[in-house]
Design a protein that fits this description.
InterPro entries: DUF559. It holds the Pfam family DUF559. This is DUF559 domain-containing protein. This protein has a four-stranded mixed beta sheet with strand order 1-2-3-4, sandwiched between helices. By secondary structure, it is α+β, with helices and mostly antiparallel strands. The chain has four helices and four strands. It has one domain: 3-Layer(aba) Sandwich (Endonuclease, Chain A), CATH 3.40.960. It is globular and about 45 Å long. Helix 2 runs parallel beside helix 4. The chain is 46% helix and 17% strand.
């Protein structure tokens, strides 16, 4: 286990802040927990669910209104989709954003802002499509 006493002073202070910043519910070094802190509570009116599961399909972060899922993955080229998952995503018109964990750890706020911006645009497009308006 890495401890703050084995780190250079500047990094040690940061390590201490990160370790003490959580309230016990989150691991600040876990990119999933870090991103969830930004997506929970319906930011910008968008309701994200964590670890959404339906019909044998699990999505790490999912906004049904935007038909958008976000997943943190080390290898975006890894073929993780099963036929069942692909069929579910297609049936529900869900696109999946794949995000490297290093991006979340580096700047979770920026990553969440990007997700929320994309989700907002998708909500508007799906609302326009439902009302019969053409997309811009």
């Amino acid at each position: 286990m890495l401890s703050a006493k084995h780190l250079p002073p500047r990094v040690s202070r940061l390590w201490t802040v990160i370790r003490s910043a959580g309230n016990g519910d989150f691991d600040m070094a876990d990119p999933h927990d870090l991103l969830w802190q930004h997506l929970q509570g319906s930011p910008r009116g968008l309701k994200f669910l964590r670890d959404f599961a339906e019909d044998g399909v699990t999505l790490q972060f999912y906004c049904a209104e935007a038909h958008l899922a976000a997943e943190i993955t080390d290898d975006p080229f890894k073929q993780a989709d099963t036929d069942l998952r692909e069929a579910w995503l297609e049936q529900h018109r869900v696109d999946v954003m794949q995000i490297p964990p290093s991006h979340v750890l580096r700047n979770a706020s920026e990553v969440s802002d990007a997700i929320l911006s994309i989700a907002t645009g998708r909500v508007e497009r799906f609302a326009d499509a439902a009302s019969g308006k053409s997309a811009k």
